């Protein structure tokens, strides 16, 4: 009888331990899933931001968006922007005498023609200059430079955490009330692509929740069907 009692107690203890473990897992699984999603989201979102930056630069320079990854990569690697390299500043006295930066640089660029003006305002090209130079568009962006985007620009279309999947890239346009034809673009990736390998049940629930809200089940920047100021759906 005593043996049966001990066995019964052991079974109860085992059942209690199993129940505790199941409860712990039921709590930890969604917690771990959210942590893993947050880590992957951060990387994918940064990639989408880089794509948006390049697309907006292309729009500013060429009045449209890139329709393909090859076009976007070629633009990032080969296009340049003009920047003004400044050295020195004008003194308060020079400014008070009516000098400005445009005039000062004009005088210094033509020393024979403006010798009197250079002498009058005490200008020296060794201490004051304003020059325009062309730099690669990526080199002009401190954020992209700090992350060495130029080194991996050839793979910008590939989704992080996914072997060979690429972001979906689309362009479109919409006519505003004033009759202006506005170019649009979007880049996106479904959850099931970059969250593959995480807890399947939690992933399915996440996808189902987005679909129930009639929202894209993934991360997306911009919209090829309506103007949204190129916002990301995480913002």
Task: Describe this protein's structure.
The protein is an alpha+beta fold and 235 residues long. It has 2 domains: 37-78 and 140-222, no CATH class; 80-136, no CATH class. The protein is 50% helix and 17% strand. It is built from 9 helices and 5 strands, in the order ααβαααβααββααβ. The strands form 2 sheets. The protein has a 3-stranded antiparallel beta sheet. β3 (168-175) and β4 (181-190) form a beta hairpin. It is elongated and about 100 Å long. It starts with a helix and ends in a 13-residue tail after the last strand.
The helix/strand series, from N terminus to C terminus, equals HHEHHHEHHEEHHE
- The SS-based structural class is alpha+beta
In this structure, how is the largest beta sheet organized?
3 strands, antiparallel
Helical content stands at 40-55%
Range of strand content: 15-25%
Q: Let me know the average pLDDT.
A: 87
CA-based shape: elongated
Spatial sequence of strands, sheet with the most strands: 3-4-5
List how many beta strands DSSP finds: 5
N-to-C span: 67 Å
Alpha-carbon Rg, integer: 30 Å
**Whole-number total of structural domains:** 2
Low-pLDDT segments: none
The number of helices is 9
Task: Draw up the topology in text.
Blueprint: H1 2-62, H2 69-78, E1 80-87, H3 92-96, H4 101-109, H5 115-120, E2 129-136, H6 142-146, H7 149-152, E3 168-175, E4 181-190, H8 191-194, H9 200-212, E5 218-222
Antiparallel strand pairs: 1-2, 3-4, 4-5
């Amino acid at each position: 009888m005593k043996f049966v009692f001990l066995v019964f107690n052991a079974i109860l203890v085992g059942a209690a331990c199993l129940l505790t473990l199941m409860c712990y897992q039921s709590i930890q699984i969604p917690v771990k899933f959210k942590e893993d999603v947050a880590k992957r989201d951060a990387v994918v979102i940064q990639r989408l931001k880089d794509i948006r930056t390049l697309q907006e630069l292309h729009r500013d320079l060429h009045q449209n968006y890139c329709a393909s990854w090859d076009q976007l990569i070629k633009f990032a690697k080969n296009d340049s922007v003009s920047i003004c390299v400044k050295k020195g500043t004008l003194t308060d006295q020079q400014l008070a005498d009516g000098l400005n930066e445009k005039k000062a640089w004009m005088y210094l660029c033509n020393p024979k023609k403006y010798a009197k003006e250079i002498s009058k305002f005490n200008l020296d090209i060794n201490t004051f200059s304003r020059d325009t130079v062309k730099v690669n568009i990526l080199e002009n962006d401190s954020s992209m430079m700090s992350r060495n985007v130029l080194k991996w620009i050839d793979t910008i279309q590939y989704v992080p955490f996914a072997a060979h999947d690429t972001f979906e890239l689309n362009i479109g346009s919409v006519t505003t009330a004033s009759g202006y034809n506005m170019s649009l673009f979007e880049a996106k990736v479904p959850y099931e692509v970059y969250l593959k390998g995480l807890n399947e049940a939690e992933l399915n629930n996440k996808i189902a929740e987005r679909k129930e809200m009639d929202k894209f089940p993934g991360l997306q920047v911009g919209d090829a069907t309506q103007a949204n100021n190129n916002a990301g759906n995480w913002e």
